[in-house]
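[RESIDUES AND BACKBONE]
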Amino acid sequence: MNFSDTIGISAAGMQVQAKRLQVAAENLANSETTGTSPGADPYRRKTITFKEMLDRSTGTSSVAVREVGEDQSAFEMRYDPAHPAADTKGMVKMPNVDSMTEILDTHEAQHSYEANLNTMQITRSMLTRTINLMK
């Protein structure tokens, strides 16, 4: 493995973690977004999955976003008869977003992003030292 492979792997890791952070931020921003008409569905939590990417020419493995999907879990029902999205019983469908889960996901994405950034910085430092030794 050469230095450019290492930098590419770290960059791919940073890209997927940035996308993961974006998805969690969108979920948090919409955690109270309900439908606008009686019985309408609210915001549905987004999920993200990753896949392994194998570069056969170098034998290196990296990561990429497989899919940004939707969480199909049930919506919470809340009694609020004055809400525009309330059904005939006064119940409003609330998004299936758990703020604590999203906050934990943002922290995990941040730590993974930082780990990949550190790897990239160490690789750059090693490359610089190698060049300096060759002078």
Notes: The mean pLDDT is 94. The CA atoms of residues 22 and 82 lie 33 Å apart.
